[in-house]
Amino acid sequence: MNNDKKLGVALAGLGYYATEQLAAALQQTAHCCLAAIVTGTPSKIPYWKEQYNIAEADIYSYENFDAIKDNPEVDVVYVVLPPSMHKEYTIRAAKAGKHVFCEKPMAMSVAECEAMIKACKDNKVNLAIGYRCQHDPNTQAYQRFAKEQTFGKIRMVTCGAGYFDARTNHWKQIKALGGGVMYDMGVYALQGARLATGEEPIAVTAQHFTTRPEIYKEVDETTLFQLQFPSGAVATCQTSFGIQMNYLQVNCEKGWFRLDPFSAYSGNKGSSSAGAIDFPLKSQQAKQLDDDAQALLQGQSLLVPGEEGLRDIRVVEAIYQSAKSGKVVKI
Asked: Fewer C-beta within 10 Å: the chain N or C terminus?
């Protein structure tokens, strides 16, 4: 690979996020472009052909997906499928010799994450997780506060990520497909706490709640969790499909900082003891895609590799274990 080339990206899964966010972002990128699509819904194909001039040879189904190995225009497969399918299609893409960008949550278990990382290493391809916020300069600003101890040691983090989901029969409400708020929105709140402290949690307690048990029969609608960190910092986090919230508050020895919103697609900004936190960004997704593509082209380390997704799922497993047992779970 060299910098004269744009990496070709195949979007695997053409739901809302791929259609409304990633496809549009790929029209703004400097280092990668939309090269192919993978879908199990033939009725979606005419739109993509017309809108993005996708050739018939660059359209795949889940059945013939493995043939993508023979397509020299595809360098990267971006897995944008329900979480239950992330492991399978990451491994299949790796075996086809393609780099992989995988949406969050990385997978349904630590074991699945480890299998995905191993498959990519065995096939000498790279794996990046789609944590768009880590590419946002507003997130990077508060990460620096922790690293440089701008306001002294972190003492307390409060973080919330959620929205009201009126749907009653979506994959996010089905356990077998990887549903549940902790997997979907909860990882944002977890990332907020991890990145704000710069540490990995060592213990967790958690609780599940629902106001719509007729809808959330299989998975969690609202989850509260509390984290303990090695430095003594603590975090209290909330995530929900029934409550609108998007904020990060961090109290330190000598000051504080707050972002509201902290994990939106755009407009993340906040304030601190030292002034405003406001770094405008046109498109998180375009920056994420370009950052990752440029890293591949230049042979550099990815900002958010598979190991980062694994760290989150390790904590997510502990959160579900604690909510079920009612006990503190050490990590």
From this structure: N
Picking from 302, 303, 288, the residue whose alpha carbon sits closest to that of residue 125 is 302
- The pLDDT averaged over each successive group of 10 residues in the chain (331 residues) is 76 98 98 98 97 97 98 98 98 98 98 98 98 98 96 98 97 97 98 98 98 97 98 98 98 98 97 96 97 97 98 98 98 96
Under a CB-based contact definition with an 8 Å cutoff, are residues 182 and 320 in contact? yes
Active site residue 188: yes
Of 78, 87, 98, 104, catalytic: 104
pLDDT score, position 3: 46
Which is the catalytic residue, given 142, 183, 188, 320?
A: 188
- What is the distance between the alpha carbons of residues 177 and 106, in angstroms, rounded to a whole number? 13
Give 135's contacts (C-beta < 8 A, 6+ positions apart).
284, 287, 288, 291, 303, 304
Q: What is the 3-state secondary structure (H, E, C) of the chain?
A: CCCCCCEEEEEECCCHHHHHHHHHHCCCCCCEEEEEEECCCHHHHHHHHHHHCCCHHHEECCCCHHHHHHCCCCCEEEECCCHHHHHHHHHHHHHCCCEEEECCCCCCCHHHHHHHHHHHHHCCCCEEECCHHHHCHHHHHHHHHHHHCECECEEEEEEEEEEECCCCCCHHHCHHHCCCHHHHCHHHHHHHHHHHHCCCCCEEEEEEECCCCCCCCCCCCEEEEEEECCCCCEEEEEEECEEEEEEEEEEECCCEEEECCCCCCCCCCEEECCEEECCCCCCHHHHHHHHHHHHHHHCCCCCCEHHHHHHHHHHHHHHHHHHHHCCCEEC
Q: What are phi and psi of 176, to 5 degrees?
A: -65, -25
104 counts as catalytic: yes
Q: Is the peptide bond before 261 cis (omega within 30 degrees of 0)?
A: yes
